[in-house]
Every structure is written in C-alpha cells, then in structure tokens.
Amino acid sequence: MIEQLELQPTTKDLKKDIAYYLRNYCYGKENAIRMKSLARRFNISTRELRKIKRKIVMEDDIPVGSTTRGYYFPKDDNEIMEIAAYYESLSIETRIIWKKYLSMVEKKDWRNML
Q1: Residue 1 pLDDT > 50, yes or no?
Q2: N or C: which end of the chain has fewer CB within 10 A?
Q3: Which distant-in-sequence residues (6+ apart) come within 8 Å of 62 by Cβ?
Q4: Can you give the C-alpha Rg of the chain in angstroms?
Q5: Residues spanned by the domain of 39
Q6: What's residue 10's pLDDT?
Q7: How many domains does the chain have?
C-alpha cells in the first residue's frame, strides 16, 4: 500500500520532506520503502537520495534505517541498535555513522525530531 501513495514535497527542504515521509509512512522496518520508489516519489536519483539520507542522519540526528527491503524510520531503540550493529561491522569510515546512531539512543529525543 505504501508504494501506491502519492506525496508531493511540502517544503523546499528535501531532507525534511523525506524524513517526514519516512516517519509517517515507513515506520518500522516492516514498512520499508524501496530506495528506487522513494527516489521516484521525490523526483531525485537514488544517488541523491543516499546523500540526503546521510545528511538526515549525520546533520539532523534523525535515524533512518535501511535493509534489503528499503529505507524506514525505526520504531524503537531495538531497531536503532540493529542499525548501529550493522555499521559497527563495517569499515572505520562507517564507524562515524555507527557512533551517531548510538548517540541517538542515548539522547532518547530522536522520536521528537520531526
């Protein structure tokens, strides 16, 4: 059902619009949306979407999960810890992202970022 919804960006800020969309329509990894579908929805490339996703996480402290099923907004600390565990298993460069997710769980205010 989620992939059939239509959404036009509501602001000029794609970061905010994408984060809002994920929070409201892709809540929890079971509701993930494929990267291509999300990029198409916002009329951007998948490459641009990956850049925006990184900025949402790194600049705005808003968690965005990704699996083979697509992108999603984590529904609880356990899902954030799953994301953090994934990044922990990767190279040194990605540990920066891992640490960012851990700090989100510690802050406990990530749910109220939007």
Answers
A1: no
A2: N
A3: 19, 56, 110, 113, 114
A4: 13
A5: 13-106
A6: 57
A7: 1
Q: Domain for residue 6, yes or no? A: no
CA distances from 80 to 22, 53, 58, 89 (A): 14, 15, 14, 14
What is the pLDDT of the chain when averaged over all its residues?
86
Alpha-carbon distance of 51 to 63, in angstroms, equals 14
Read off the amino acid at residue 75: K
Residues in the chain: 114
Percent of the chain with pLDDT over 90: 61
Residue 114 lies in a domain: no
Domain membership flag for residue 2: no
Q: Which of 1-5, 42-46, 67-71, 109-113 shows the lowest per-residue confidence on average (mean pLDDT)? A: 1-5
**Residue 92 placed within a domain:** yes
Q: Given the structure tokens 């749910």, which residue do they identify?
A: 111
Q: Which helix (H) or strand (E) holds 95?
A: helix 95-107
We report the CATH number of the domain holding residue 51 as 1.10.10
Tell me the pTM.
0.72
